[in-house]
């Protein structure tokens, strides 16, 4: 069992201070703290699973032929031993499928970083309006960005394409304004 | 394999900025989402998002610590309201008065929002391998609400705590143990350590502030350009000392009072620089520009500025003297107490060593 330390002074806080109804002062720095402890704290790290050795004519693991297969991969169907079985959001996958899924961005739960093309496009449409003249460059870029990444993976959190639509509309208006202005000046000459 | 839209998340209340180090201006907005089997922490800067997942089966503890940030903001905003209201009441230029009223109203709105949002806190989530801050849970009300939402989800996976697990070890310190002697901040850490700092640079800074306060007090009674010159030099010196002290007190065992006094000194320094600037501008505007040909002429006008010249100068000097004396004296006393506490805490060990040798 690990110990919990005060997040202010880093002094260890003893078990008597856990799961109290209200805040209590830290024994060291007296800053009010409240520690909500869950059973995992007392159980520690779960031990890793080991594959069982193959006996007679049992099905073997695709990656470890000497180990007994316990489950098939939910994606590719290969037989897996307990060691190779990777459980992700209730699905059992083999290490190769996990790696492939991570590379292709198919397993959302392994994604740690996403670029927000819709947010970028909207900012690119709005921010240069402060200078006005910059929009002549940014408006076409915004439209290109919106079309190019219309189907690219967006945030892990579900969000609509409203930012893309707004960016395209605003940039379209900017281009229209520039075109009208240029035509007007040319025709006046 | 899992589809792109497989996980559905429910937004949890709260939103905050992630602070990185000593002084960091962060543009990462943090929020929390509740998934089927985990909490998703999202750090977004508008252009990209970073994700952290805390699986219910891995969450060991959630540590909530109350902070005084909300109260400090309330005080700062109240001071802003007071100063802008004073400006609105006493200034004669109509446009400036209107601007002051607008400012007062804005600050009042911020103050009300701050009060309405309730007390502030810092929340950390602990797993077997990490302890991470949850910046979105920066208000107590929100933190409580989120923890109450999470508790059933975590308990559904981990089960409930056994009675023997919540029992207190009789050998360990209990809640009601006497705490008459305040222990020092322990140099113990989970990942990052706390080092001992005697507070020498703090002491120097507070001593210089105190000395500057005395000199400003003398200046109030008897004007002398030499004293002003020395005071300028002292201000420069203690500005450097304060900055060094702020850097040194980070991750050190310097007590909270001394830390706050150092931050207050920095605040006072900023205010005094601002007041000095206002004073300089008003002096330059009122004095004859044809007299100031060189830079030296400008300095001479400032050095010749006496508290007896106007009420504004007198007020600024009195404010500076009172603040410097108060900050310097209280700061010095607190640093001295910290040094004494450390000396008395380390003495018993030395005594025992001496006895053992004997």
Main sheet characteristics of chain B: 5 strands, antiparallel
Helix/strand order of chain A, N-terminal first: EEEEHEEEEHEHHH
Portion of residues within helices of chain A = 25-40%
- Terminal CA distance of chain B reads 73 Å
Radius of gyration of chain A: 29 Å
Structure summary, number of beta strands of chain B:
8
- The amount of helix of chain B comes to 55-70%
- Please mark out the parts of chain A with pLDDT under 50 across 5 or more consecutive residues, or reply none: none
* Main structural class of chain B: alpha+beta
**Number of structural units classed as domains of chain B:** 3
Separate helix tally of chain A: 5
Written overview of the protein:
- The complex is a heterodimer of chains A (189) and B (358).
- Chain A has five helices and nine strands, in the order E-E-E-E-H-E-E-E-E-H-E-H-H-H.
- The longest helix of chain A is centred in the C-terminal third of the chain and has 27 residues, at 162-188.
- In chain A, strand 5 (71-72) and strand 6 form a beta hairpin.
- A two-stranded antiparallel sheet of chain A has the order 1-2. In chain A, strands 3-4 form a two-stranded antiparallel sheet. A two-stranded antiparallel ribbon of chain A has the order 5-6.
- In chain A, 35% of the residues lie in helices and 13% in strands.
- Chain A is flat and about 90 Å long.
- With 189 residues, chain A is an alpha+beta fold.
- Chain A folds into three domains: 4-43, no CATH class; 47-112, Herpes Virus-1; 117-188.
- In chain A, helix 3 (117-126) runs antiparallel to helix 4 (135-148), helix 3 packs parallel to helix 5 and helix 4 (135-148) packs antiparallel against helix 5 (162-188).
- Chain A starts with a strand and ends with a helix.
- With 358 residues, chain B is α+β, with helices and mostly antiparallel strands.
- Chain B folds into three domains: 10-66 and 121-158, PH-domain like (Roll), CATH 2.30.29; 69-117; 200-346, no CATH class.
- Chain B has helices at 69-90, 94-117, 140-158, 163-166, 200-221, 225-249, 256-286, 295-303, 311-357; strands spanning 10-11, 16-17, 29-34, 38-44, 48-55, 61-66, 121-126, 131-133.
- In chain B, the strands form two sheets. In chain B, strands 1, 2, 3, 4 and 5 form a five-stranded antiparallel beta sheet that branches. In chain B, strands 6-7-8 form a three-stranded antiparallel beta sheet, with helices on one face.
- In chain B, strand 3 and strand 4 (38-44) form a beta hairpin.
- In chain B, helix 5 runs antiparallel to helix 6, helix 6 (225-249) packs antiparallel against helix 7 and helix 7 (256-286) runs antiparallel to helix 9 (311-357).
- The radius of gyration of chain B is 27 Å and the shape is elongated.
- The chains are: A alpha+beta (189), B alpha+beta (358).
- At the A-B interface, strand 1, strand 3, strand 4, helix 1 and strand 9 of A face strand 4, strand 5, strand 6, strand 7 and helix 3 of B.
